[in-house]
Write a structure and sequence with these properties.
- This protein is mainly α.
- The protein has a single domain, classed as Up-down Bundle (Four Helix Bundle (Hemerythrin (Met), subunit A)), CATH 1.20.120.
- It has five helices and no strands.
- The longest helix has 26 residues.
- It starts with a helix and ends with a helix.
- The relative contact order is 0.16.
Length: about 110
């Protein structure tokens, strides 16, 4: 994985976590949480989607389309929970990829020991 992609995935993990926290908070009204999660966290990820793995990019685009569709019908607290669930699934996948990238391979460990 290229350095730019790894940095973008780390940024994605941070933004996805912040958005999911907003959407599941009891302190932030659901309608404000949806707006802020979308405008401040999801949109910046979409601006950098070309540096992400295709499956992550597709899931982000699906979440974006889901938000646009829900907005046209009228946003609801139930949709806020659904979006939080979608974003958490993307976050789990993103962190799994980052975990694989950040671990040294056994080949590197063996060479360092030699």
């Amino acid at each position: 994985m290229e350095w730019d992609s790894a940095i973008t995935l780390a940024f994605a993990a941070e933004q996805l976590c912040a958005a999911a926290q907003l959407l599941t908070s009891d302190l932030v009204p659901w309608n404000r949480a949806l707006r802020v999660a979308y405008e401040h966290h999801l949109v910046p990820l979409l601006e950098n989607d070309s540096l992400m793995p295709e499956d992550i990019r597709n899931q982000l685009l699906d979440a974006h389309r889901s938000y646009i569709s829900a907005k046209s019908r009228g946003l609801t607290p139930e949709f806020a929970q659904q979006l939080a669930s979608e974003l958490m699934a993307i976050l789990r996948q993103t962190t799994a990829i980052l975990g694989r990238v950040s671990r040294p391979s056994l080949v590197d460990i063996d060479q360092a020991a030699a």
